[in-house]
Write the structure tokens for this entry.
Amino acid sequence: MNLSIFAYLIAIPLLSSPLVYLVGRLGSHKLVLFGGRGWLVRALALIAALAAWWPFFLLWQDFAVRGERLLFNMESIWLQADGLSFLLAAMVLTLGTLAIAFSGKYMAGEVGEEKYYAMLLAMMGLMLGLGCAKDLFNMWVWFEAMAVSSYLLVAFYREQPGSLEAGMKYVIQSAVGSVLALLGIALVLGQTGTLDMDSIRQTITYSPTLLAAGALFFVGFGVKVAIVPMHTWLPDAHSQAPSAISAMLSGVVIEAGLVAMLRALGVLTGTAETWGMLLLAFGALNILYGNLLALRQSQLKRLLAYSSLITDERGDLEAKFVVRLKELLVSCFTIRTIVDNLPAGELATRFPRRVPAGETISRVEAPRGEAFYFIKSNGTESPARIKIRTPSLCNWTSVINKSIGHQLADVPMLISGMDPCFSCNDRMVTIKSNNNSQTMSWADLREYGIKKYGGRW
């Protein structure tokens, strides 16, 4: 088999990354009739991810036939494909392809959508290269490049302070870890005179210098693996990054860091047993400490993530009101939690009267659906455009079927049961009967229902 196919596995996502970005920025989207720029960018990213499976399957077939690892070199740079490389590559391609496929609606219309897909493809290619590195320094280069691409994705919503804070914490901690790992590589080079993993295994002997190098590898790569107590960047990165990137962080980025750690510690044959026991101990600590942290979350967003959904066993109209009352109680608890945890200082703040020109989109998940807000500013004190789309409209059609068999006086309760917003309540209701029509306001309809049932509700 032509071993240049080996390079295609890494090159396809890496070379597709700038192509996707340029297509999204240079106006090629004007040729697309349906879906615009975003559609074309998503399509190219998905095609690139699917195309990377072709060299993967060819390499896997050759690996299965030979029964030994595959080697490929470009000048003095050697790459290898063994069982661990194929495992990591399969995870990267599977999760990366799914992340691109399911990011369509989630990322549609986001500012910098082409950057998102470009960096996601770049991160996939860099992780593939990391798994195939045969010497310590090139593995570190792949590792650091992968980290840079993930920084940009974690801080993708750069207009949000929380996202920038999470990205900065991630950058600082990962940079410190990368420096420590590089120092460990320098110690190994000074002790053995080579960085090739096979050569190091053959020439290495136990020494305190290599023990120190192993400690640097453990701490340096351990930051990316989020081993306790080097895990503090991970919760913020998950909560602030786009959902697909959170899946990539948990599903494959951390595992890529673990592969780099195992590769680095694996060449230190004289101390391998020591590091193996240490990894087992820290793995157990991660499981215990991680679950305990989940129980004591105090931040509102993380606290709600572990809360139960408010439900009722019944499916009638009364159950809907019971659920709404329970939600009011939870809202009171939420407000109290916010007030109790307010930082000391002034409650008032100053806002600029002139908002910089631009536009923004905000989406909030409400009990009855998604609330959508769009604001466009022209740089003056008054906004140029405001668009609010509430989820009540799509629920109004259900009132027709719910009203069958009920009295006119039941309509206010039926409408209230779907929990419309206040502005949606202030509507006019037209009643047609025997070719006669009567228009009633919400207040008139409510008063009619009260009279009908004699004030019982």
User: Anything to note?
Assistant: The longest strand covers residues 358-366.
